[in-house]
Amino acid sequence: MENLFVMKKLEDTVKLLESSITDMMKTKEKATKLEAAGAKDKLPDMLHELSMMKEKLSEQISSLRFCVLELELPKVADFTGKIMDALERFDIHVPDYSKFFNAFQVLFNQFKDLQALDTQAAGRFMNHIKMGYYPTDIENVSLIKQSLVFPENSINILDPCCGCGLALQKVAEGMNVLTYGVELDEIRVEEARKRLYRIGKGSFFHSRISNEAFHLLFLNPPYRFNRWFRTAERPDRM
Question: What angle do helix axes 5-36 and 114-129 make, rounded to 10 degrees?
């Protein structure tokens, strides 16, 4: 039986978050006891440790939000985003952490029944994954684009699994680029034609491309999680 890779990622991230919160609470208790005992010389080290823990927690909650977005749970994603914003403003010097971390428990309650969530998500994903369609969330594409530096001269970029062309269109937005895509599904091909410079219908495995014709490859093939081998793999059929 297959399981969505994102569900495994979600489960692992929730466990990491729970562990990080527990560790942070314990460290705060130690810092409080040291302050009460008058050992103020040790407080800077404890505060630095708490600051590093907060940073780690922020990375983990960000990772969790990406999982939730992939699972198409917009309300949970919005709530996760609010926690991210609150965590950024959170002052590690406050005396009581419990009220703030109660919000995390509300979030974790959303993922108590992972098996039911897996079944629901699988149903939604199977409607998308047919013929290799596994769209990249536009918010994720925006984050990817922030890490790219485009030259002033024109370049060619290719998405060999372009779907409706939305992702590649977002990457190219405002840049001096020509966009090329390949897609299996006839309906999505017609949608992509409206957004990309050129689009080819069929499998990119059977495409002939000249050497160095493209300067950037944007690729998001479908992945699945094999629960027996604990590995991510790409389906043979695209």
Answer: 140
Asked if residue 114 and residue 24 are part of one domain, the reply reads yes
- Phi then psi for residue 179, to 5 deg, are -105, 135
Is residue 181 within 8 Å of residue 159, measured between CB atoms?
Answer: yes
What secondary structure, in 3-state letters, does 101-128 show? HHHHHHHHHHHCCHHHHHHHHHHHHHHH
Please say whether the beta carbons of 50 and 93 come within 8 A. no
Above 60 in pLDDT, residue 124? no
**Taking Cα atoms as reference points, which of 234, 237, 216 lies closest to residue 168?**
216
pTM: 0.50
pLDDT over 70 for what percent of the chain? 80
Note whether residue 238 is domain-resident.
no
Intra-chain end-to-end CA distance of the chain, in Å: 19
User: What is the distance between the alpha carbons of residues 83 and 61, in angstroms, rounded to a whole number?
Assistant: 8
| C-alpha–C-alpha distance, residues 103 and 110, integer Å | 12
Q: Which of 40-44, 123-127, 219-223 has the lowest mean pLDDT?
A: 123-127
Structural domain of 113: 2-125
- pLDDT tens column, 60-114: 998 888 878 777 777 788 888 888 888 888 899 888 888 888 888 888 887 776 5
Helix (H, G, I), strand (E, B) or coil at 201: strand
* Claim to verify: residue 98 and residue 142 sit in the same structural domain: no
More confident residue, 172 or 67: 172
226 lies in some domain = no
